[in-house]
Write a structure and sequence with these properties.
This protein is an alpha+beta fold and about 425 residues long. The chain has 15 helices and 16 strands. Helix content is about 40%, strand content about 20%. The structure holds histidyl-adenosine monophosphate (HAM).
Length: about 425
């Protein structure tokens, strides 16, 4: 027999974008909840910025010759002629909001956390989406290296609460405007004679963005990068001692890290520390879970005072993927305390109001209004793990009473309907 083909709509989600279904939401909810809890615990205020921003903010902030701005940004022109972009990252937008809303008048450092979607027109593959979500953390106004280490610690605290282990930090320092130009020159000199052996992209990078030559994934470019001069050997005293302190703090709090002299990150604003956090296993090699670093010149570049900053962002899609791949159980099912069983027309009618009263009294309540037999409803109460079943039948509704069934012992008692909430609260207090 020919199998019936499922009728599909001709419409699909845009390439590289996906629907997050109810079965995925338990993971998303848990990840967001842990992120928000820890953000609060580490003193971050929540900041929401628009999804669209002025294109120039990213050209200036992220950098004109970065992959993000050159190739990946979704640009649009509004009816009024404004040139906007779907944000490809949070950092420049957060600094804009900090400056625009007078947050720079708050006591520093100012700690801001934002959650939401970012958009990058990337080549689609698992873990790399055109719409993805980030949890972004910025600390503005403090140059002490202890903060660089504390942000990495925050990531590991979030991971721990999500049950994610075996993660590793890759870390490097890319210097500052004092020492980097010299290193840049060394790098250009090194690559000039090797230019013809590089991939097409890297040939352009020699002039435009030579640091990115170091982290190209093409095998011929990787091979050449192995012999390239390393920036850690060419840092000024200030950057050198900053980096050493960050590593000492990480040692102190026992955060696992490896030095990666070729980690440069693809965004122009970084100074000094840069880091990424990766799963420490074979499968995870292509997928950084989080990345960040210090950006001591960005606030000034975007029109503020000379103010240091450091931050990072977590890829939430990748965190959820990893939790699912590793089969980590997320216990998000909240057991209802009370299950409301209704029988007969009057019982059903009265139960609607009672449900609301129980909910407002702060007692977790569940019910199955479309189910009409006592047996099926009690079975459901049992399955959900409710402690009390409240049985409201025709007779009880007429008598203004209700039966409390204690699910663990199956014992029951009848109480006046208007006393039931107080009675349950009393029982809870005792236990
Ligand atoms: P980023 O490394 O571009 O840094 O992104 C941070 C994280 O976002 C990545 O490690 C990854 O987990 C996730 N991510 C980025 N693009 C995608 C994608 N297309 N699909 C799935 N996940 C993705 C930044 O965005 C900086 N703004 C971080 C920062 C904050 N630096 C300082 N402050």
């Amino acid at each position: 027999m020919p199998t019936k083909k499922k009728r599909k709509s001709k419409f699909r989600a845009p390439k590289g974008m996906r629907d997050l279904l109810p079965e995925d939401q338990v993971y998303w909810e848990k990840v967001r909840q842990v992120v928000k809890n820890l953000a609060k615990g580490y003193g971050f205020g929540l900041l929401e910025t628009p999804i669209l921003e002025d294109v120039d903010l990213f050209i200036k902030g992220t950098g004109q010759y970065t992959d993000i701005v050159e190739k990946e940004m979704y640009n649009l022109k509004t009816k009024g002629g404004d040139k906007l972009a779907l944000r490809p990252e949070f950092t420049p937008a957060v600094i804009r909001a900090y400056l625009e809303n007078g947050l720079s008048r708050l006591p520093h450092p100012v700690r801001l956390c934002s959650l939401g979607p970012i958009f990058r027109y990337e080549r689609q593959q698992k873990g790399r989406y055109r719409q993805s979500a980030q949890a972004n953390f910025e600390v503005i106004g403090e140059k002490d290296p202890i903060l660089d280490a504390q942000l990495i610690q925050l990531f590991f605290s979030i991971s721990k609460d999500l049950g994610l282990k075996n993660l590793i930090t890759q870390i490097n320092s890319i210097g500052c405007p004092r020492c980097r130009p010299n290193y840049r020159r060394m790098l250009v000199n090194f690559y000039r004679s090797r230019k013809k052996y590089l991939c097409e992209n890297c040939q352009k990078r020699v002039q435009q963005n030579p640091l990115r030559l170091l982290d190209c994934k093409e095998s011929k470019c990787c091979k050449i990068a192995e012999d390239a001069p390393q920036i850690v050997d060419n840092l000024c005293d200030d950057c050198h001692s900053h980096f050493r302190s960050v590593l000492e703090y990480l040692d102190e709090i026992e955060i696992p890290y490896i030095l990666n002299p070729r980690l440069v990150r693809g965004l122009d604003y970084y100074t000094k520390t840069v880091f990424e956090i990766w799963p420490d296993d074979e499968e995870g090699r292509q997928i950084a879970l989080a990345g960040g670093g210090r950006y001591d010149g960005l606030v000034k570049l975007l029109g503020g005072k000379d103010m240091p900053g450091v931050g990072f962002a977590i890829g939430l899609d990748r965190m959820v993927n990893l939790i699912q791949e590793r089969g980590i159980k997320i216990n998000t099912r909240i057991k209802p305390l009370v299950f409301l069983v209704q029988l007969g027309e009057l019982g059903k009618k009265r139960s609607l109001r009672l449900f609301e009263e129980l909910r407002q009294a702060g007692l977790g309540v569940a019910s199955s209004f479309s189910c009409n037999t006592m047996k099926a409803q009690l079975k459901r109460a049992d399955k959900l793990g409710a402690r009390f079943a409240l049985i409201l039948g025709q007779k009880e509704a007429l008598d203004e009473t209700i039966i409390i069934r204690y699910m663990d012992s199956s014992s029951q008692e009848t109480v006046p309907l208007n006393k039931v909430i107080a009675k349950i609260k009393k029982k809870l207090k005792k236990s």
